[in-house]
């Protein structure tokens, strides 16, 4: 019996292939997905990992056996699958393990219109069915099985993105893109085609073994090649995509990283101008600059917990036009409230190309504070250490505490958030302040308690 508790996460399925799951299990997931969603038709796509085509086809077989017609879009980015789900009005499944190592694979599932499927929105029910069927007795096949057909949506995906951001009048830009041997190598050439961009590609060859570096640009070690290439070629900007190309990271003309908070603020300002105001969602770890910029541009900022399910839920509730996270996930109402790093990248390119200055000068107005970045501490007793931090800061007259997501402590000149990881014995600390000296002081004070 497979241990599904190890591979069914809060928002997706993810595990080592074939040790933790395989094509036979993928077939059961396909059947369970159809049963839980009640879908008569679905769309399925996959990334470039060696195990992805087989797992994806097995899922399609399981879905078709229960009577659903399956549209296979083949190789795609995760946001390309969301596009297909939105455009075709179908539930969808994307086979990817994002930035995880090559031996991993997974499934990101959504309902029609790219609405998320998580533990509380169907994933727990899917898991229960798969467990039941895996123990014995496979699902009863439909009287009339569904069909499996192929459809290429890459050109339509690119056209939709480009309809949302006008880049036709920008000045020529030299752009280095590091695809990390992931799906950005598949989508970028089509999305950028015909634009006034001098593209310098890095690691565009699709290779799910990731021979050059991990496809996780959140780790500074994985953008070293991009930074060097930007400096060496005199490029205006560098972009890095993760394995399934739903997240995008930006470096400026000096090769220096642009924080996702600064990108969130920049895109928020543009979306607010486009929609003549509106609500913008930001998670509680984004910079103070994000709600400030939103208000300055006539918008309403709404703070939420970390995680795409919370962002998407709050966007739906509020009718928000845009949402951003510190992890470089960017969500757009014009993209079915789903996240697309490619659309965020087009916004940054447009903003840069519409004016004569450098990217570093452009983003300076959105990058107003000093920050620690996320600092992880391995601790056996997460709750105990967090409680000790709460006690240390709770009695101060100059601080306010809230526990929307972990512990956030806010003072006049600084704030920090301390959160427990959902999957590892880690406490994650983020500190922001008006100057570096204060960041270091608060960081060291909190870590001394956490690591005591």
UniProtKB/TrEMBL annotation:
List the keywords (alphabetical). Answer: Isomerase, Magnesium, Metal-binding, Phosphoprotein
Q: Which cofactor does it need?
A: Mg(2+)
| Keyword RNA-binding belongs to the record | no
Q: Does the keyword Manganese apply?
A: no
Domain of life from the UniProt record: Bacteria
Cited Gene3D superfamilies = Alpha-D-Glucose-1,6-Bisphosphate, subunit A, domain 3, Alpha-D-phosphohexomutase, C-terminal domain
Report domain Alpha-D-phosphohexomutase alpha/beta/alpha positions: 6-133, 156-255, 265-369
The residue ranges of the Alpha-D-phosphohexomutase C-terminal domain are 374-447
InterPro entries per the UniProt record, alphabetical: A-D-PHexomutase_a/b/a-I (IPR005844), A-D-PHexomutase_a/b/a-I/II/III (IPR016055), A-D-PHexomutase_a/b/a-II (IPR005845), A-D-PHexomutase_a/b/a-III (IPR005846), A-D-PHexomutase_C (IPR005843), A-D-PHexomutase_C_sf (IPR036900), Alpha-D-phosphohexomutase_SF (IPR005841)
- SUPFAM superfamilies attached to this UniProt entry: Phosphoglucomutase, C-terminal domain (SSF55957), Phosphoglucomutase, first 3 domains (SSF53738)
Q: Which family does it belong to?
A: Belongs to the phosphohexose mutase family.
NCBIfam families per record: PRK09542.1
* Name of this protein: Phosphomannomutase/phosphoglucomutase
What is the scientific name of the source organism? Streptomyces meridianus
